[in-house]
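Quick start: read one record
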Amino acid sequence: MKRIEQFFALAPNTLLTLAFERQYSRPVGSAPAMKIPYREKMASVTKDVYRLKQASESLAREWSDFVVHKTERFPDLRRYARGVWVTTDLITEAKTERNWYCFTKDKYVPTASIVWGHVTSFLGWLSRARELGGAGLTSDDVQTLAWLSNKRMAHRYLKWLIERADDKIHDGLVTFAELIAALNHPRHGYLTQMPDLQERLPEAHRSRVWQDGCREAYEWASETKKNLLLEGVEHSREPMAPIKSVLELDDPLEAVADMTARMKSCRPTTGGTEEAIWARDLLLIKLLASNPLRAKNMKLLTYRADNSGNLYRRPDGSWFIRIEKRAFKNAKGAAKNRDYDMPVKNVVWGDIERYLKVYRPMLPDADKVDYVFLSSKGERSEGYIGVWKNLNRRVFYLTRLYLWNCPGIGPHGFRYIIGTATLKKAPAAWDAAAAVLHDEVDTVKAHYAHLRPSDGGNFVHALLDSAFSRM
């Protein structure tokens, strides 16, 4: 009965309660959830927050000046030709007091958000108590970017990160070393050209000659990055682990088809907003299966009645999605030479038209924004009008509820499912897989290399089945 409940996505103990509702019955516990080692590790680690929580006004000014240097067309200081940070109007959240660090002149800077995370983690470690492995400095003493030119502290921090990761060499270590090297490059390093910042360091931690200290940090970081890569980077997270049972199927897409069938069976009978949310969720899952775009692209997907949006209808009745290359995460890589203009699978067309005509108008702000997917009142951030910020969380909830034997995945998991399903059907179709994922062939080969030996062999066996059958 527990398995029947799970299959039909019923709330835990729905059938058991009906079957054992007599007073003498004993409650039956839920089946144990699938354990994902990385998620369990992160659940533990994230409770120990050490990142710098509050930036001083001086640090905020330093950071803002740095972001301007990385984004403006003609910077005052020397800058590496490939060291430009891209700004964009395409954002998934509005500017607030909490995310000021990833904006400049009201333009969103995606890279700034990532780098700020590394900076505040390092500065937070500097003010962490010694007995907890930190440097034991005061919060006031760490409020400057100049610390990123301190070789000794950077070295101690890196060793602590390795210990914290159970002696694993992960991507974050390499990224931090790259950041130190870039900031302290002898010619175009930003900190190398900012000697006045040294005055903001405690006197005991200043270099006699600023440029010498920067050069030492650069040489250390360059050598450290080389050694880390030689030792080999281990990936702490196994992104395919939550859907391993799905990917092992002969056709992983069958699991998604099964998921949508369960979602259809749970259609609300009350109508109104609940049914509109159901229709939105069903379209979202089917569209992720047809066009496995990244979460940001799904959030920013637009529709306009004049067909000028991302989602548009051709004269023959077919639906397509077009997105400019600059809107992609890999705009400097696989997407740099082509825009995205791909067909939507015909089985999704009816869902699109029904949602846009009937259900989307029932959701808040349908007449104010042109995003395809809208949040309900219960899902919206207070006072926020715009993209559906919690789309990732909703996909996680839906897959945990309806995707068989899955503890929950985000939108990116559908890229793994579709990529794997494509290569299982045609093991040599790397170009086709790269096209549907809007990625480079080499990148797809690297991510799905595990399919080459087993599925390639099965494909050959199937081709030669008539001869094998005589053996």
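Strands lie at 103-104, 107-108, 311-313, 319-323, 340-343.
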